[in-house]
Amino acid sequence: MKKVYFIIFLLSAIQMNSQSDHIILHGIIFIDSLAIDNVNIVNKTTNKGTVSNRSGKFQISVKENDVLQFSNIQYLTKKIKVNKTHIKKKVIEIYLTQKTNELQEVVVHNMAKSLGLPNAGKEPLKPTERKINYYTKGGMISQLYGAISGEKKKLKILQKHLDEDERKLNNELDVNMIRTHFKDEFFINIVKIKLENIDEFITHCLPFNIANLFYKERYLEVVDVFITQSETYYK
Q: What is the DSSP code string of the chain?
């Protein structure tokens, strides 16, 4: 019996160690300099995946040597192997290449804009947004159905939750990227922020446009915000 308990304990320990090897990798997906959404990210090692949001950002559980695949019908599929640098930084930037046959659609789209065709310059709506638009701006019957069935209200509530989840994810990714760039030593020794408060402090500074400044590489302005906000953060 003791031998059985020992084997169970050993298997549990192995499983816990395996899980502890994983980290949450945060990333942004670009084509040229534009962040892109709706890219499928799959960890081929664990067969688990996610999708980039409207800001091109995502997060996924990985460990060293896992293989990540990035795919979308408009872009060439890309695979990378997670290495020690990825694990250490916990952030990654991925650049995809547009498929050549998709360039024809871009030309057609630009021609439609130049000819002044209706709605040529509008971005396509998300499925949820399309349904909301249908029940809001559709014909009398569709508007009446949306009001009676409560479908329009449910979709608006759903969209609100989706937007809130995306906002939280964006903030979390911004905080991780900014913290990784400036290093904990900077916050502790220069800005005088305790180690356990660094994430909270960066989040506190987000309303002061530091994420936008950071991605434009205006680092001195970001530092200025940190120094200014640190003076009142603990008060």
A: -HHHHHHHHHHHHHHHHHHHT-EEEEEEEEETTEE----EEEETTTTEEEE--TTSEEEEEE-TT-EEEEEETTEEEEEEE--HHHHHH-EEEEE--B-GGGHHHHHHHHHHHHTT-TTTTPPPPPHHHHHHHHHHHS-HHHHHHHHHH-HHHHHHHHHHHHHHHHHHHHHHHHHHHHHHHH-HHIIIIIS---GGGHHHHHHHHGGGTHHHHHHTT-HHHHHHHHHHHHHHHT-
